[in-house]
Amino acid sequence: MRNEIALPPPAYRPDVDGLRAVAVAAVVGFHAFPGRLPSGFVGVDVFFVISGYLITSILLRDLARGRYSIADFYVRRVRRIFPALALVMAAVLAVGWFTLLPEEYARLGKHAAGGAAFAANLVFWAEEGYFDVAGELKPLLHLWSLGVEEQFYLIWPLLLAFAWRRGWVRAATLGVAAASFAANLALTVAGGNDAFFLPVSRFWELMAGAWLAQRADLSARLTSGGRDGVSVLGAALLAAGFLLIHDGRAFPGWWALLPVLGTACLIFAGPQAWLNRRVLSLRPLVFVGLISYPLYLWHWPLLSFARIFDLDPSPALRLGLCTVAAALSWLTYELVEKRVRHARPRLAMPGLVGAVAAAGVAGLVVLDSRGAADARFDGAVAPVADLSFAASVSPGYAQTAIGRQVFPRSDPGRDFFADTGGGSRVAVLGDSHANRLFAGLTMASARGALNLGRGSCPPFFGTSVRWRKTGEDLGCQPVIDNALGFAARAPEVGAIVLTAYLGGFGVDRDLIDLASGEAIAPEAALARTLARLAQSGKPVLVALDVPRLPSECARRGFPIWRGVDTSACVIPVSRQAAAEARLSRAVAAAAAGNVSVVRLSAALCRGGQCGEIDPRRVLYDRDGHHLTVAGARRVGAVLDRALPSVP
Which residues form the signal peptide (predicted)? Predict the structure, then answer.
């Protein structure tokens, strides 16, 4: 079979660099001012289409000339991608040394290693879950898109060469695009971040560009008016994407067609279309397009570190950091990228590969050394937050004898399960707060204990949780009902402990009664649950949740080994007492002798204040309601004392 491929002319297209400028401006705008440009993240989709178009054009031109070399292709990719990447990764690791706590720096090391291996998207995908750290606090989060592109570069050149020899280029392009688009739809419907991070659901966007690279014949047939019309249509689709898409949409899914088709139309219209020639080819846009890659790499770490130090940096600071990123990008382009591009490959290649590999190895060393804690901290400094908890689930947990009764399928990003074994165990049920209470109990006591729960799901019979903004049901059932039922009937469970974070109900999320489909107050759901559990005859303890502090109240020193100032991280004890009184009334409504309460705040309140009361330890995570290892150990000891009769 013959390849009927019509290649675009090899001439440089300034309008494509103009498109790059639009894409990077959208991404930077979204990251700096998400409230002003909530759809800016679709700029990455524009980049994907452009990359697919340019890379496939180069590959097909080499194949047509009989000069195809996979080695030469990768040499060109290394010279294009590695210089700025190595520089930014080294800079981020260096800044992290002075600014990040041990757990944060260890996490950054893992991300650097993933970025160097071009698997950052897979690393972030594996981290997805309620218990994960907010994305804006990950300085290398933006490397996920490079991972997708590099995985495309590993697969597509080989598949394209194979298809070329058999005359299947168009069929291969359409086949891969169709399969990837179908995966995108399926994974988007399934929820979670699979569709966002996995290459199988993103390749269709690059394949859209690959298809354009093969159909220059269709573009050439357009009249002048036709080119202008297609260009305007593309701009309209792209504008619609920027206006209509936001983080509440099921994305990518069908919505990604707006930026992908819009970009495809603008490329297809050609450089002579009025909009491409008069707008996208303007010198300022072309200049931004030329530095778009280093700008993409530099802007996010600057904004991320600013948010690590201040949860909400001022608009002026964010704008200033974007300006700094632009200056660094220009310097990187002029002093690094251009020089490497013109250097001899035999001299440049070992250095580039070695630099990125060194960044990856450095990341692994940082990860293995627990964030270089011993090298950067000693016992004399002010406190630092220890978040080095054990894994939230045991390997193969869903296939254990207990796991099969509770978890219908494995979801390690959201499920909590651990079993210390032994005889009669204390079952701790609930959400991520219960997970940390369980960790504290196992640190403070040698009791047998069992951890059963799911992120964001309170331990109430017949309920689930729904986000108000998106209407998304968090899928608490059947896991929660299964866990409660198991704890009530299982002979190996000697006592039951319930706890959960109940902040936000009625504000950004609702607790839904599955029987009626209506919202239910947490206190009513708790009373109903206790009435059922009391029938088991087992001791049931409601662990009243820990005090909620202002988020980001701690101030870290610089350098970080000077410690963390937590003096502002307290609330009046009266506020905590009011919150506890509401739940205590729900417990009293159960009117059962085997149901009681335990005040976890007893470990976290002193002298009329609750929160960070220990000058030697940081007790809270930065979100103001999850506990650190030190905080968990404190409340675990309180729970242990409340369970004297349980083996």
Answer: none
Whose tokens are 């220009």? That residue is: 330
Same domain, 444 and 330: no
Query: 75-110 in b/e burial notation, b at 16+ Cβ within 10 A?
Result: eebbbebbbbbbbbbbbbbebbbebbbbbbbbbbbb
Q: Give the torsion through C-alpha atoms of 380, 381, 382, 385, to 10 deg.
A: -110
Classify residue 567: in a domain, yes or no: no
Compute how many other C-beta atoms are within 10 angstroms of the C-beta atom of residue 35.
7
164 within a domain of the structure (yes/no): yes
Residue 135's domain comprises 20-80+108-345
Rounded to a whole number of angstroms, the distance between the first and last alpha carbons of the chain is 76
Tell me the per-residue pLDDT of 257-315, one tens digit each, with 9 for 90 and over.
Answer: 999 999 999 999 999 999 999 999 999 999 999 999 999 999 999 999 999 887 678 99
Output the domain CATH number for residue 413.
3.40.50.261
DSSP state of 555: E
How far is it, in rounded angstroms, from Cα 134 to Cα 309? 14
Q: How many domains does the chain have?
A: 2
Query: pLDDT, tens digit, for every residue of 173-185?
Result: 999 999 999 999 9
| Cα 471 to Cα 508: distance, rounded to the nearest angstrom | 10
Task: Please tell me whether residues 72 and 216 are part of one structural domain.
Answer: yes
Residue with tokens 């219908």: 408
What's the pTM value of the predicted model, to 2 decimals? 0.81
